[in-house]
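From the methods appendix. Each design record in this collection lists the tokenized structure first, followed by the designed amino acid sequence. Records were kept in a plain field format so they could be parsed without special tools. The example shown here is representative of the layout used throughout.

RECORD:
FOLD TOKENS (171 positions):
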């Protein structure tokens, strides 16, 4: 809203200046007076060019900021604005957008790292649970096949199997 009001005021004053200069130009009779009016016209033209250049520069900076927000919103968190291309409030906004992009990128990297660690943990826990379960299942199968009823024989066979497995791992 602030820029629109400033632009409307600028246009209004510009129209008034052009009308006044036109009246002065039409009413001046001497050569010196016409040179003064021509100087005023040239000054107004230079001021208009400077104001237009400033507005054009701000518009380009605003477009670049909008483009950066679009890229970041679409997942390109590594997109960075060149801060040397901005000044004033636009420079602060561009720096904030770069910081948001870095923060999002770091958060995504942390999330990916967390997911990897979680998958590794599940794999390791699964392996750690499977190993003793496999041994127990094998021992129960051995007891059923051998039809062992005496507890001492079961413990003896169990110790022998356990020793064999330990020796097999060491080799």
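DESIGN:
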């Amino acid at each position: 809203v602030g820029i629109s009001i400033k632009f409307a005021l600028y246009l209004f004053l510009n129209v008034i200046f052009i009308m006044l200069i036109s009246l002065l130009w039409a009413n001046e009779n001497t050569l010196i007076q016409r040179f003064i009016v021509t100087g005023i016209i040239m000054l107004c033209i230079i001021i208009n060019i400077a104001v237009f250049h400033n507005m054009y520069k701000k518009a380009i900076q605003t477009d670049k900021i909008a483009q950066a927000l679009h890229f970041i919103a679409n997942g390109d968190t590594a997109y960075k604005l060149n801060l040397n291309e901005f000044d004033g409030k636009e420079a602060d906004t561009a720096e904030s957008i770069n910081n948001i992009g870095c923060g999002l990128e770091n958060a995504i990297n942390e999330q990916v790292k967390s997911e990897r660690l979680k998958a590794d943990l599940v794999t390791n826990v699964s392996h750690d649970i499977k190993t003793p379960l496999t041994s127990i299942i094998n021992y129960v199968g051995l007891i059923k096949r051998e039809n062992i009823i005496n507890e001492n024989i079961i413990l003896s066979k169990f110790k022998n199997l356990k020793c064999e497995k330990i020796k097999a791992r060491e080799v």
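APPENDIX NOTE: The two ends are 80 Å apart (CA to CA).
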